[in-house]
Amino acid sequence: QGLVELALRPSSDKSQPPSQRSMVSLLLLVLSAPAAISALEQQQHEAAQAVANPIRKVVTMLQDMQKKVTEEGAAEAELYEKFMCYCKTSGGTLSSSMEEAKNAIASLTASLKASGEKKTQTVADEKEHQQSRSEAKDAMAKATALREKEASDFAKEKSDSTTNIAALEKAIAAVEKGIAGGFLQSNAALRLRRYAMEKADLPDDARQELLAF
């Protein structure tokens, strides 16, 4: 306590011997050391945060992109399943119509042989059913072609989504481990950069920041 009082006493007191003044200066230095150390630690912490925040921001954006790609893939799969269900139902209806037309033709042919006086009407009916059968076959062929096209498109979309998700997973792991430099030279990085430029649903500023990383 005596030393503290001595340190707080105005240094202009010329009655203090030089040894006391030196001791006071040393004591003031010791008392101020914790505050200086604390300020230095705070500066180091803020500097570390400034470095970490951009990396965390990039990781967050990559994770958001991965989530969107996964959701888009799930939506595409759901639409494809609904379309296939519709095609199966429509195909069954067309097959049933063709079978009915075939039976009607057979029945009309038998009637033609049995009733000569109804020949004209029967021939007209037969032509009508032949036309219906032809139209049903055309409709079924178009439905089959459309189903095959949709299946091909879906397969491509699914393949792209799987590839993009894999690239995002590699990017996130590389950034979090601090080895983004090596990843940027890989094919996965090229694929991810192309996806970010052409398809990713990102604000322009976020897209530019990601491409510049």
TrEMBL record:
Keywords, comma-separated and alphabetical: Signal
Signal peptide (UniProt feature, chain positions): 1-39
Region (Disordered): 116-140
Protein name: Uncharacterized protein
The species this protein was found in: Pyrodinium bahamense
